[in-house]
Amino acid sequence: MMPADIEKKFSNHWKNDDEEGGKNLNEELFLREQLKAMGKGDLKVSYTKVVNNQAGLDLTNNIHNLLNNDLNVIVYNFVDMLSHARTEMEVLKELAGDEMSYRSITSSWFEHSPLHQALKKIADKQIRIVLATDHGSVRVKTPYKVVGDKQTTTNLRYKHGRNLNYEPKEVLAFRDPKEVGLPVPTMNSSYIFAKEDGFLCYPNNYNYYVNYYRNTFQHGGVSLEEMIVPVIKMQSK
């Protein structure tokens, strides 16, 4: 389903960028509704979201109990948290200065993580694992100026608002959100998406934000790094 379809079908659970509350608080509900739509509503399903190390340890300790289910969905939030933390923490900027070192830190974390321990515990079981991600990220380097009103969203890789002014060649723009299956938060809303390694900044305190966010890893734009989603299928030998 496209975002506009989700907003229409689940109007009580959809959140626009200017509304309070997270967008990812109803994932289990959406999962179960999707299974019903596929005629799989009678499956025994579990949904686990790991947002800190203790939750990861709990998953490791409970992993064998999950084997009684038909389908287990596990969302691991660490890599997304790492990309945001790298923006805020100088020490992480030093440790993960480029793509190669960023991947190295992620790999080192996984090797010593509760997730790795949990997978090793069930490696000899006859199960199938599908490993994927919701999006990638890109290291942004090129700032582009965008002018908007107070309701314009703050994301660095995409923005929507009523009175956006930008250089058309620098972004992918949609004056009519419905054209690409996006909701229309306010009358005359339009969307713009950053391409390649660009990031979107307001003229206010422009130089400060350019220096602060340049070379950080961001997502929400339309670069290949963000849009191509890897899917890996694994089965015990």
Explained architecture:
- The longest helix has 14 residues, at 53-66.
- By secondary structure, the protein is an alpha/beta fold.
- Helix 3 packs parallel to helix 7.
- It is built from 9 helices and 11 strands.
- It has helices at residues 3-9, 27-37, 53-66, 78-88, 90-95, 99-111, 114-121, 206-213, 224-227; strands at residues 45-50, 71-76, 128-132, 138-139, 142-145, 158-161, 171-174, 190-194, 198-201, 217-218, 231-235.
Could you give the topology of this structure?
Blueprint (H helix, E strand, L loop, with lengths): L2 H7 L17 H11 L7 E6 L2 H14 L4 E6 L1 H11 L1 H6 L3 H13 L2 H8 L6 E5 L5 E2 L2 E4 L12 E4 L9 E4 L15 E5 L3 E4 L4 H8 L3 E2 L5 H4 L3 E5 L2
Parallel strand pairs: 1-2, 5-9
Antiparallel strand pairs: 3-11, 4-10, 6-8, 7-8
Helix pairs in contact: 3-7
